[in-house]
Write a structure and sequence with these properties.
The structure is a homodimer. With about 900 residues, the first copy, chain A, is α/β, with parallel strands linked by helices. Chain A is about 45% helix and about 15% strand. The first copy, chain A, is elongated and about 100 Å long.
């Protein structure tokens, strides 16, 4: 039986439209849209698509086109010629085409467009005749030779540039457009010489040869290193190859009756249902983009050509009806005739995404699930925090870029100490606290400031963590900012800024800008609440928050958090008297002295917990026992050390020696987390006592406090067994001491943040009532990356595409995810239904939430301002399952 | 059908010996040996063993003895009474027994011995009569009440102590032995009161009751927390329980015709085949151990009782013939009658182990495989490096303990700078270099010194790593040593030592001692070579070495290394001019300047590699590309920074700024390893160029250089793919430049030391021609332990048995091992037969080598001095498979 050959080309045009049922996989995205638009009767320059199947065959044949392809192509060209009454290579009225690649998914790295294909020494004169514009014809021809030479034949672009520069010099032309017709004719000759020199053959004078070479080049671009790597990184598999779109050219630059434009079917910035766009008379598409001439609002077309404008409005409705989404369209008017060149789903702001999705549900275009999938979860940040306006950003004077440590936008005058920030804010000034790094003593100043900028420290530095908790804008680790505290100024790349220089910082990008950049403050719409309600209806994952204070807890609860997934206790030790007591504890030489100091801390901790339980009443609060190395709590400068020594009545040398002793080469891998509780069990006892006493106090006030005690940094089951026993003993002891006989139902669980804990999760789960993945540390250890030091090589890793994304922002599902998956299944293998969550910062990242949903986590926990994002992302994950 | 009840007790004695075929699992180790000795006709005090099966039943019955057990016990007691013509509880000639636990494997934490069981108020007088020694009888009785009260009834020992103290005071007795007979009679009354007070019942006056309670106590001790924990940690599973041994007492303290002794059938120190031991006349076993009286050499027994001595010698031969191994025996002579109390395999030094194993093969006791299993691989260290003599250590004045950074023993005068060490050594003095920490500038001094002592830094500090490479003794991180370089002295816990104070350091234990402790220097025997030959015959694993210089390489080759598994290149940059060029490279701001500096380094590197290839000709040399963070190479003190600035003609501020910029919070997780090659590919290029040029030079001299290039710290396949490409390009470029057309066969592989690399080993293996597990880093990251900081909590972890052993010394097979296993199988799943080795320091640890053999590694690599150990351990792993 003869093998049936698959259809290799699909025509679209007035004559026939073949592609509508063929699907994206065969036609590519662009090809399908062209067929669709033609099919629903829109005016599209006709053409045809060579399928992805042919691309696959091309590689199977050892990079050869299938034998009959060019016959097929020739047939399509003939159909085109008939339909348009033009001839390919014709000396009077030549048919010119564009050639574009287009796979099923949009993919950078593949071949760009070739325009004006079909021009030869003969047909260029035909074009000149047909358009009565010889300059235009030669300009098109030189563009073809350049693009073809560059893209198809691999001639370096600068060779053409050099030739052009000579011509420009000769004609004393400043711009390309200043070169007269004869210059362009000369240029074509020069370009052809360049082409010949580098390819050792003349520029092809047969249009079909041009087309064949172009098709081969498109297919070749499917397997460039960059394209292959992109597919690897993005996990794009199972595609046959790229399609090739060959389409008749349409020109918007043929006179005052021609033009071109781009538009959105609704306002992409606000989402309002009004046609929105721009157009330019007598221009090509690239002129609109290049911004050389100022385009007019699309509504002005009414005055220029009412019929065309009406037609465009009709097409807008047809497209929205057809695609059931806001479209981004490109169109050209050639001598009064409208042609649609492209339609695609339009990009939009977060606010617009919410409004359009809700409107379209009302308009019955889509249902709730579809609406939820239409809103990029991350874009909700724009609805919750101030941001710089696009216009403001476009003209901003960017000084340097640090780390985007806490999102938001803020504008203010630099304050160089915390005290200064407090004072000046009190006087009504808006200030940005600018410090090398912040320390616990700076919290008041940080709270007063509109934003925080540090020159060292990473995404987990003190400044970054504290700022995120508050939703305060922060740029950290801006290494090029050199601060001189004494002179109240800083310099960036030689430019000096004082306490009187207004600056702007963008916590979402890390940019530091001179002057005041325009910001916009969001107001939450009814549509936002509606989207959140829908999200809650469809998601399976619970969403908790990471919060350390009653205020944060309340804010997160308002944002819809269903509990606290991570309540860090260390920040509680930094304020006022507490830090002194904490330091006394650390400097104690005996257990007895440590207990004495801890006794002072107990009432503070109890009060903190009581406040948080009250704010979260009825919802679970997961409290992590002390985690950071003790070195973080002691003073490092001589002055503070002396002060502490005086308070404690010991010699400054003793303080200094202890501080030095606590110094570690790699504190991230040092004496911290549960290791502290093993060596100083009295710290654990104090913390658990405070928790239990707070729970009992709440219960007595009829406040339903639900505490979960989380032991950090477990690496072995033996650690957890020992410490769980100590926690339980302490709970029992407090209950006995307080004569409380009711049930407290305090769960005792652990963080899984050490690779070994995930690898041995079956052993660990024997002693854990819940797991919470600390994916910040888990990522650090699985990759061997210190988050605070990664900036020295991460930029290279991202630019060389060794990493697709910063693994601290989005969970590495291949490696770290393997451990998470292993931890969940091993844990549940010994403890059925074990409650498992995530409290690393990935808990607020949509892609990571998708993964968490897949591997069966019970909840994600994230910073208060990301709770709405997580709710939406969780719903999307479940809907798209 | 009635269920057949298993036999519950096994008698051993003249009447009958039941236990010989029953096996260790049923009788326990001690019970089996007693049965064996009795069975082969040796004089053993008769008795019986209650089986481990009964222990199992005891627990199954809810901690109750099986109904018929005590009938069985009574029958055995009657047999004993008949055989010995004594009566249990008899008023004239009482039978007394000891009760001991004994499982199939020796296990600390279980019940100790109870002696003299059977004494009551009645039988104590019988014992007095029978021995004509009332003091002896009451001394035995008070010991029973004390032991029984403490061990069986759980009365705290100090309650008895207090009662004894009162009696001693009353009789003005300094020692227990000074208390007269009437005092002991009073003491018994007092002890009975203590017993009654704490147990609320009288001391049992029926011997059978005493025995029942003692048996229950032994069974109870099987499940104490400590015993359970011990079995968990040691992975002891599947045992039924402990046996109980009830044995007639024999007394060596019944007069001048009685005595007791311990002996080894061969010399346990040298292995020489001579009977070796000590005995004491009129004494109990514990007197020999306690050292109150000085025992005589066992050979002196000839003069005291020739017949007994002759009998003992015969027994010695019988035991060696029977057990085919050197035995450690205990015996007692009661009124001229010899009784054997115990025999067990004797502990021995490394030298003795080698000699005895070889002798026993010659004597045809055992075969080669058995001989190899008999030698603890680790003990070979004693044969290769100087060590302190046991006598020297016993009386040493230990000042403090640091980390055992590099084994060996050394004695010398402190030198406080490298220059001083060089100078004084040149003058013939033996010095120990005492530094806070060492740095690359110190290498000459380190090489001159007999040993190195540092007060900070861990097992991977500069001092430790360099010292291990040289086999130089080093104690690191001795935190209690306070060094004052200016005054040329240090203090330890208040004691001061100057450059004139002789000190001794033990690199195998970390001890720092005052004065000169006696050392012994090993000489390698013919037996050692024989053992190595046998080991090579039976092992499957290859053994390579970690060596960075021709001298190390040669030494390792002499020790039998089959290649270099890890040649670190960083140490090569520390000497003389090199470090200056290295620093210039690091301080360069442009790639061009870096290349200029690297050009200076190239000839040095090439020469290093040429030397190593020449030393290892015909054997593979795995070279790791630059690994440590650049910060390690720059000067940190102001003076050196200024010097460097002068050399480079730049400002000291620039040097300082760059040094600060290179500082990392967690350098272990920072910009190092392959991350350097990604950001500064020119470093990789220089190193690969040096390697390839060295290979070509060697080949031209007909030296077969086999290079393997190893890329460190790979975490993603993308890194390796990129860098492998760069390495290959460089190889090709050098070949072309040198016009070398032959094959070089340079393999390109990677270290697996990042958890993620193991997790994604299938992806990584696509680009790797070999894997080498860097288990130092892998352990650091899998556990989240910084090896340099672990000392702040490791001691607690070991003492609380959270970790069975330091995971940096012996591979954690549960966690880290899981990643190794995964790495091997995932790697080989895509690349069949992938060569896989290990180059972490675990490569020299016998237990870890066993694991490496199990998971199918091809080779282990370790420091030169551990090569023989690894060869033996590899053979043992394969033989015991």
């Amino acid at each position: 039986m003869a093998k049936k050959t698959a259809k290799m080309t699909y025509y679209f045009g007035k004559t026939k439209t073949e592609g509508r049922g063929a699907g994206k996989e065969i036609l590519g995205g662009k090809g399908l849209n062209l067929a669709e638009m033609t099919g629903i009767g829109l005016p599209v320059p006709p053409g045809f698509t060579i399928t992805t199947v042919v691309c696959d065959q091309y590689y199977k044949l050892g990079k050869k086109l299938p034998a009959s392809l060019m016959d097929d192509v020739a047939k399509n060209i003939r159909t085109l010629e008939r339909e348009l009454k033009k001839g390919f290579g014709d000396a009077k009225n030549p048919l010119l085409v564009s050639v574009r690649s287009g796979a099923a998914v949009s993919m950078p790295g593949m071949m760009n467009t070739i325009l004006n294909l079909g021009l030869t020494d003969v047909s260029v004169e035909g074009l000149a005749t047909a358009t009565s514009n010889r300059r235009f014809a030669y300009d098109a021809y030189r563009r073809l030779i350049n693009m073809f030479g560059d893209v198809v034949m691999g001639i370096d672009h600068h060779h053409f540039e050099e030739a052009f520069d000579k011509i420009k010099k000769k004609y004393k032309a400043a711009e390309d457009t200043d070169v007269p017709e004869e210059g362009l004719v000369e240029l074509v000759t020069a370009y052809k010489a360049v082409y010949k020199k580098h390819t050792r053959s003349a520029f092809p004078q047969n249009p079909i040869d041009q087309l064949r070479l172009a098709v081969e080049a498109v297919f070749g671009s499917w397997n460039t290193t960059r394209a292959v790597r992109y597919r690897e990184v993005e996990g794009i598999r199972g595609l046959l190859g790229t399609a090739v779109n060959v389409q008749a050219m349409a020109y918007g630059n043929m006179g005052e009756d021609s033009g071109t434009g781009v538009a959105f079917t609704r306002n992409p910035s606000t989402g309002k249902n009004v046609f929105y766009g721009e157009f330019l008379i007598n221009a090509q598409g690239e002129d609109v983009v290049a911004g050389i001439r100022t385009p007019q609002p699309v509504v002005e077309m009414r005055k220029w050509n009412k019929a065309v404008y009406k037609q465009l409005l009709e097409i807008k409705d047809i497209l929205e009806n057809h695609y059931r989404d806001m479209q981004d369209i490109e169109f050209t008017i050639e001598k009064g005739n409208l042609f649609m060149l492209q339609t695609r789903t339009g990009k939009r702001t977060g606010a617009a995404a919410v409004k359009i999705a809700c409107d379209m549900v009302r308009e019955k275009f889509i249902d709730e699930k579809e609406a939820l999938l239409r809103i990029p979860a991350d874009a909700l940040t724009q609805l919750l925090l101030p941001s710089f306006t696009p216009a403001g950003k476009a003209s901003a004077d960017v000084l340097t870029q640090g780390l985007p440590a806490s999102p938001g936008a803020s504008v203010g005058y630099p304050a160089f100490t915390a005290d200064e920030a407090v004072e000046r804010t009190a006087k009504g000034e808006k200030v940005i606290l600018v410090r090398k790094e912040t320390s616990p003593e700076d919290v008041d100043g940080m709270h007063s400031a509109a934003g925080i900028l540090t020159s060292t420290g990473g995404m987990t530095s003190h400044a970054a963590v504290v700022a995120r908790g508050w939703g305060r804008c922060c740029v950290a680790g801006a290494g090029e900012v050199n601060i001189n505290e004494k002179s109240r100024s800083f310099t960036v790349n030689g430019r000096k800024f004082t306490h009187k220089s207004l600056i702007s910082i963008d916590g979402s990008t890390g940019e530091v800008m001179a002057g005041s950049v325009e910001t916009s403050t969001p107001t939450l719409s009814g549509d936002f609440s509606k989207v959140m309600r829908w999200a809650d209806k469809y998601r399976r994952l619970d969403v908790r928050t990471n919060a350390d204070s009653p205020a944060d807890a309340k804010r997160a609860r308002d944002f819809g958090a269903q509990g606290i997934g991570l309540c860090r206790t260390e920040h509680m030790f930094f304020e006022g008297d507490r830090i002194t007591a904490m330091r006394e504890m650390i400097l104690s030489e005996t257990e007895k002295d440590r207990r004495k100091a801890l006794k002072k801390l107990l009432p503070f901790q109890r009060k903190d917990f009581e406040g948080i339980f009250t704010a979260m009443k009825g919802l679970p609060v997961t409290i992590r026992l002390l985690d950071p190395p003790l070195h973080e709590f002691v003073p490092h400068d001589e002055k503070s050390q002396k002060e502490l020594a005086r308070t404690m009545g010991i010699s400054p040398a003793v303080v200094k020696a202890r501080v030095e002793q606590l110094h570690e080469f790699n504190p991230m891998l040092g004496h911290r987390g549960c290791r502290l509780s093993i060596t100083y069990p009295e710290i654990l006892e104090m913390q658990v006592t405070a928790i239990v006493e707070a729970v009992i106090r709440c219960k007595k006030k009829r406040i339903n406090a639900i505490a979960e005690i989380m032991i950090p940094l477990i690496g072995t089951a033996a650690e957890l067994k020992l410490l769980k026993g100590k926690v339980q003993e302490t709970i029992d002891a407090v209950k006995a001491r307080r004569k409380y006989t009711g049930k407290l139902n305090i769960l005792i669980g652990t963080m899984i943040e050490i690779p070994r804990a995930a690898l041995t999760a079956d052993e660990v789960a024997e002693h854990a009532e819940f797991f919470s993945f600390g994916t910040n540390d888990l990522t650090q250890m699985t990759f061997g990356y210190s988050r605070d030091d990664i900036n020295s090589f991460l930029p290279d890793y991202l630019s060389q595409e060794i990493l697709p994304v910063d693994p601290f922002q989005s969970l590495d599902t291949t490696g770290v995810g393997q451990l998470v998956d292993m931890g969940v299944s091993k844990g549940r293998s010994v403890r059925k239904g074990l409650k498992v969550g995530i409290c690393g910062e990935h808990g607020g990242d949509p892609a990571s939430i998708q993964f968490c949903n897949e591997v069966g986590l019970d909840y994600v926990s994230c910073s208060p301002f990301r709770v709405p994002i997580a709710r939406l992302a969780a719903a999307q994950a479940e809907i798209s399952k």
